[in-house]
Amino acid sequence: MRLELLDTDVLGGERIDAIIALKSQHWPYPRDSQVEWFAQHVAASDRHLLGWKDDTLIGYLRIVRADGMQGLRMVPLALVDTVCIDRACQGKTFGVALMAGANRAIRDSGRVGLLACARHLVTFYARCDWTSLSSSVEATSDLAGILPGGNTFLVYDPTTRLTQAPLHVSAPDRTPAARNLRCPSRDAS
Questions:
Q1: C-beta separation of 150 from 13 below 8 A
Q2: Each residue's pLDDT tens digit, 79-93
Q3: Residues 35, 186: contact at Cβ < 8 Å?
Q4: Is 171 exposed, middle or buried (0-12, 13-18, 19+ CB in 10 A)?
Q5: CB 98 within 8 A of CB 85
Q6: Distance (Å, rounded) from C-alpha 21 to C-alpha 116?
Q7: Helix, strand, coil percent values for the chain (each to nearest 5)
Q8: What's the gap between Cα 28 and its chain centre?
Q9: Which of 15, 70, 77, 150 could share a disulfide with 165, CB 3.0–4.6 Å?
């Protein structure tokens, strides 16, 4: 799998269309709803990890820059969201390769990775060097879709910066990048 890490502003219409098509396998909402969600929730500061097999997008995840506070100490975070692998490619280690790429991007950015997942996915993420976070997580309301309560919180913390103290998470610049995005399916309407 060939990995590509891109900022939102350089995704381009064809890549966005491929992301929306892949997401639709896992979140079966109408295409217009997927396009609208992307336009309203993806920020200019987000990064996107795309996994390609030949010319087909088979893996995707989004990395959201955020700030964590534990007591009076600030911890730069990278929130991992929207992790998906093409259904026809699951069980073939592409997910592990995608997460290894995310880990590399997080480590290179000097941040700590944080994600929320359903309990049945914890074993998969543990194979990818993510561990359960023992402290509580409180996120601002704008991050509720990325860090929903009731999920298991996992962390990729290669420098062991997090402590047992509660983690307060915010993302200062979540301005939607809608005006800068060009989606072929959106532009046609």
A1: no
A2: 999 999 999 999 999
A3: yes
A4: buried
A5: yes
A6: 23
A7: 35, 35, 30
A8: 18
A9: 70
Q: By three-state DSSP, how is residue 80 classified? A: strand
d(CA 40, CA 24): 17
d(CA 176, CA 181): 10
Tokens 């996992």 map to which residue? 154
* Predicted TM-score (pTM) of this structure: 0.91
**Structure-token pair, residue 102:** 């995310």
Q: Which two tokens stand for residue 123?
A: 């074993």
Which tens digits make up the pLDDT trace of 103-142?
A: 999 999 999 999 999 999 999 999 999 999 989 999 999 8
Domain ranges of the chain: 2-172
Q: CA-to-CA distance for 185 and 152, rounded, in angstroms?
A: 35
Amino acid occupying residue 34: Q
Which residues, 6+ apart, have CB-to-CB distance to 150 below 8 Å? Answer: none
Closest CA to 83 of 156, 180, 163: 156
DSSP state for residue 120 in the 8-state scheme? G
Topology of 2-172 in CATH?
Answer: Aminopeptidase (3.40.630)
User: Distance between CA 86 and CA 17 in Å, rounded?
Assistant: 14
Hey, how many other C-beta atoms are within 10 angstroms of the C-beta on 152?
15
Distance CA 116, CA 146 (A): 7
